[in-house]
Amino acid sequence: MLSFFMKLGFIGTGNITSDVITGICRSNLKFKQILISPRNKNKAKKLEKKFKKVKIAKNNQDVVNKSDWIFVGVLPKVANQILPHLHFRQNQTVISFVATLNLSNLKKKIKSKVNLVRAIPMPPISLGLGPIVMCPPNAKVKNFFNKVGTSIEIKNEKLSNNFWAISGTMAAFYETLKNLSDWLVKKKTNRRKAQEYVTSLYFALAGLALENSDKNMKKFVSDSQTPGGLNWQGVNQLRKAGYYKLLQSSLNNLLKRLNKS
Ligand SMILES: NC(=O)c1ccc[n+]([C@@H]2O[C@H](COP(=O)([O-])OP(=O)(O)OC[C@H]3O[C@@H](n4cnc5c(N)ncnc54)[C@H](OP(=O)(O)O)[C@@H]3O)[C@@H](O)[C@H]2O)c1
Asked: How many angstroms separate the CA atoms of 134 and 147, rounded?
């Protein structure tokens, strides 16, 4: 169990770190403090101001020295540069958010024998929502992430890369929502109303499918259309144009990149 004395550290104070910290601070997780690296300066200052238990460290090594668990939220190139120069204590827990750096490469960069976990938090973690895929399984980390979302443990790293690939479609998803909203705006709907309609519709549709996860997604596709109807026309036009084949091909390319990392 996590204790009140637990000290959490973050290296790389960027977008995903800010979201994870927001999720943690809004949850009922018990911890003593969150120490963040000073870079990015603006984001670090904002987090320190917003949350009482968040403090800015002197530098990355200071984060490592004063924390029990260290989350790594930097870009892959930066991780490659900084990790070999940081001195971790044996048995510290290091949770890497870095997409394209596999466990064996991480082990080469981090010389000490730490408990290493790769995790995929996504921005809705700030609201305590969404899945957090992690590999390898680690009971404490799993319990932790279950307080800010839903942990999904994957034993095999190669399998976990499939989930990383899916996580790489987040921007494409938002691009779809943007396209739908922009289209409504062009048809003279107020931007806010357009976005609210599109996002609440897709949120509800996903919610319904989530509630019925025992059913094959195929059922939702067929139940949501009648031959010759609007949904039938919409999905078939996209199918014929190769829209979904392109989506599969984009996933395969993301996976190729991940499997090489
Ligand atoms: N964003 C997501 O939804 C998401 C989800 C899952 C995993 N990830 C992974 O998380 C990592 C971070 O992604 P992000 O989107 O949060 O990127 P980001 O917003 O660019 O954050 C990276 C942070 O690292 C800081 N940094 C740069 N050099 C540093 C150094 N030497 N020491 C300490 N910090 C340094 C940057 O500061 P400056 O701004 O000053 O350069 C920036 O604040 C990536 O590897 C990504 O694959 C992201």
From this structure: 14
